[in-house]
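Table S2 (continued). Query chain:
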Amino acid sequence: MLTVIAKITAKKALIKETKEVLQALVPPTLAEEGCLQYDLHQGTTENHVFFFYETWESRQHLEEHLANSHLIAFKQKAENLLQRPMEVFMLNKI
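Corresponding output:
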């Protein structure tokens, strides 16, 4: 099992648009084979910061997710929405 935490920092003027785009990723990702959890969180004091907390059956399932069309489309939109590149942390539970 693989846990992924992705930190997304939106441009402050585009918080609403970023949130909508991120929320649209949840249903198709949850339907993917190997996706056990895909939760979107928004900062309470820094509401322009979002996190995905993800759990995947395997690294292979994550790799397949990264190649899916809905995620590729997000990456193209992200260039205009995000303040900085997304930070991704891959973790093993100990």
